[in-house]
Amino acid sequence: MGARALPDRLPRDWPLRAASRRILCKPHDWHVQITGEGPDVLLLHGAGASAHSWAGLRPHLPGYRLIAPDLPGQGFTRAGRRRFGLDAMADDLVALCQDQNWRPGAIVGHSAGAAIALRLAEIMPLRPACVIGINAALGPFDGFAGWLFPKLARAMTLSPFMAHLVTRYARQPMRVERVIAATGSTLPAADLILYRALFTMPAHVEATLGMMADWRLEPLLERLPQIALPVRLIAGAGDVAVPATVSHRASGWLPAGEYVALSGLGHLAHEEAPQTVAPEVLDFLARHFSPLSVNAAVPTCGAGA
Q: Which secondary structure element, helix H or strand E, spans residue 220, and what is its range?
């Protein structure tokens, strides 16, 4: 269906607003930010974030066209249907890439976005040359939390008032700051304002809760030994939300997996210190992403830009 005007809810001062575009590709009304020129690299944010998460890293990744969608229902992408599970979101991202004739030769994912990136590597008609995960959420909750958290998230999505309660909570500045700090990251005040804006949007909160409720990671984890393409997992040693041991363990399950630890950084490492994360990304892309290996894709939903 192609690219159209900007999402009507997009604030005038949103990071990289000039790079934003609205793309209608069923079942969603997507918000995507695109910068740079060169071979395509797809950037996938984690649960509860948006494409703004990549704003600081982009200038440090020259030579590529960087494509970052807001995941379904999150940020400024309007979800046409409730398709918030890992497989469903990956399927819809494949349709979007084909619609727009994007040919990502590499995918970079943060947290849950890294799991989606690996699922895309399994199902894209034109497979990427490599995947990079930043604090990749590639481990289930342990013990009692593994039983409770998905059930709690599903119960929360059944209440029509839950999203409004969360948005009311997020309106208090110090509360959002505490949530971010609990991940092991420290962000400047301007970045905290962006997360506060997201978590005062009921649709964003509903989609984030829906993603938590529908998340089924175990089948992908069981298939990691079959994903043969090169994968680099970059972990902040101070990540409290997804401990670095998760990436270290998962890298051992991947036949061509690599593990890199960055000291002094938390879960939002690419936002805290993009100048530190970027060399680890660029080095891996230089070694494994050859633009000559990327063939033309055939659009299936319509012509795009």
A: helix 218-223
Binned at pLDDT 50, 70 and 90, residue 170 comes out as low
Cis bond before residue 173 (omega within 30° of 0): no
**E strand map for the chain:** 3-4, 20-25, 28-35, 40-44, 65-69, 106-110, 130-134, 231-236, 257-262
Q: 168 is written with which tokens?
A: 């009311």
The fold for domain 3-140+216-288 equals: Rossmann fold (3.40.50)
Residues 104 and 113: their CA atoms lie apart, in Å, by: 15
Comparing C-alpha atoms, which of 216, 144, 236 is closest to residue 247?
Answer: 236
Residue 28: strand pairing partners = 25
Give the angle subtended at the CA of 275 by the CAs of 273 and 280, to the nearest 5°.
100
Alpha-carbon distances, residue 70 vs 67, 77, 84, 142, 204 (angstroms): 10, 6, 12, 29, 10
pTM of the predicted model over 0.70: yes
Q: Which residues of 47-70 are buried (b: 16+ CB within 10 A; e: fewer)?
A: bbbbbbbbbbbbeebeebbbbbbb
Tens digit of each residue's pLDDT (9 = 90 or more) over 208-265: 888 888 889 999 999 999 999 999 999 999 999 899 999 999 999 999 999 999 999 9
Q: What is d(CA 142, CA 191) in angstroms, rounded to the nearest whole number?
A: 31
d(CA 14, CA 282): 26
* Phi, psi (rounded to 5 degrees) for 67: -115, 115
Q: Could you tell me the pLDDT band of residue 173, with boundaries at 50, 70 and 90?
A: low
Q: How far is CA 156 from CA 114, 163, 200, in A?
A: 25, 8, 16
Gyration radius from the chain CA atoms: 18
| Domain range summary for the chain, segments of one domain joined by + | 3-140+216-288
